[in-house]
Amino acid sequence: MILIVEDDSVIARNLEDGLQRHGHSTAHCRTGHQALDFMGRESPEVVLLDITLPDMTGFEILERLRRRGD
Predict the structure, then answer these.
(1) 65 vs 35: CA distance, rounded Å
(2) What would the pLDDT profile of 22-42 be if each residue is shown by its tens digit?
(3) Exposed site from 4, 15, 34, 67, fewest CB < 10 Å?
(4) Contact yes or no for 64/20 (Cβ under 8 A)
């Protein structure tokens, strides 16, 4: 599964459509907190991470995942 972390719904939908057309399953989170919560429950194989989200940057999410060991 590919997790898309993107607050712009048009961009997220375009990514989802393209990936699903090529046979990938996707999930979508709009905020960093949603993404961290999701990754606490699920283990996506790939994360497409927006850098500028409304609640934190993509770099902050990455650092939190590194500290957690995900």
Answers:
(1) 10
(2) 999 999 999 999 999 999 999
(3) 67
(4) no
